[in-house]
Amino acid sequence: MVQRILEPAEIESIDHVAIARVRLPDRAEIFAARAARLRQLAPGSAIGPYLLLMAHVADAQHAVAQSLDVPLPSHADIARATEHCMPLLDAPDISLRGADALFAHIAAHADAPELAAPIARLQSMSADARRAQLQALLGVASADNDVEVEATLAPFLIAALQLDRTVLASQLREKDVPMLDVHTVCPVCGTPPVASIVRIGGRYQSLRYLHCGHCATEWHMVRVKCSHCESTEGISYYAVEGQGDALKAEACEPCHHYRKISYMEKDPLAEPLADDLASLALDVMMGAAGFGRPNGNPLLWLADDDEVAADER
Q1: Which of 5, 98, 218, 261 makes an SS bond possible with 163, Cβ 3.0 to 4.6 Å?
Q2: DSSP, res 245
Q3: What is the dihedral of CA 7, 12, 15, 17, to 10 degrees?
Q4: Which regions in the chain score pLDDT beneath 50?
Q5: How far is residue 61's CA from residue 212's CA, in Å, rounded to a whole number?
Q6: 177, 24 Cβ separation under 8 angstroms
């Protein structure tokens, strides 16, 4: 029997339940797997020491996540989001319920002196000050729009947000997650994907999912399609020579953007956020080729071009 490969349009027409249109995180696994992957990738990465620091943070996220209580959206909120094809969470919803426990766990358990100063700074800040910092990081409109981001605090504030949103997403059912008209943002929290991954096993076999860097929800998108502008034309793939083909950059000629894509059949331990963070050489190569990232890795905050230019002036 000859096996025929389905075209993207045919895949999209298949029953969305049958092909697992979303993949929700498991709080018992997601952060532990990320910590393990960061440690595995650290020796071969140009930012290996930083990956090890983020592994300590993921350890703390895992520990706190197991008992963190995050309330789910109401039935009315879920129904409204479903009716209007919009994400479950509003953009300004940046609760940090687990922040105190997260920072305390890092301070008590992480054997990394480099974490002491930023964590102590965060522990000394009020909840309002942390929220203002996070709003500035995410570009959320607020009364404190003139807040200057403290760069050393950024990854830890994002880690606290990840903790809150991932625990929430882990409690959802697939039927609770709305189908959006726009497929380039997370259906749970509205965040653009950090990367994508072609998974293996069960209902996910050989399917490509976009991965949310905030709540770890994944949603299905057919392959060879731009995850930024949704073009199916002018898509090409790049990899760093000598580093295998388990991780590539999927580049779009029409919009000149790219995101990384991992292939679990090539590396079963691939973890989208960790693999993206560890592969800065691929970012450098894509920048030299004239392609830009629509958004960065949430655990590596960099000033945007306007801020850099202002600093240089």
Answers
A1: 98
A2: S
A3: 120
A4: 1-6, 9-17, 305-313
A5: 16
A6: yes
